[in-house]
Amino acid sequence: MRLLKYLTLGATRDGSTVSAYRRPLGYFQLTLTSSALKLTLPTPIANSGLYPGYAIIQCAGAAATDFGLWRDDGTAPVLSGNVGMRLFSGQELDYSGDLTMIQWIIGAGSPVLNVSFYA
Fold this sequence. Notes:
Layout: H1 2-7, E1 24-31, E2 37-38, E3 54-60, E4 67-71, E5 85-88, E6 92-96, E7 103-108, E8 112-118
């Protein structure tokens, strides 16, 4: 009996606690360019009152060396100085926070981001 108590998770579906449940709100693709791009998300989702606050971002490229650079502090990443965090082709970024602050730029190759966002 005591062991069972320790294995029980207290996760709930309400917004006041950390939860494993996320409500899917949409998907889009973003082809990175040499100019900084922001994720353009609808806020709020039509008549639902829901705001995106979590995203799964996967990078797809023609080669494993393709990557995008990103920053989430409201400042654009810089290609010439390789300033920013790298997301390589085949990698995934699970991001929780203010999705409007993330900016992306090409690092190398021709990366495309597949973005699913959730409330």
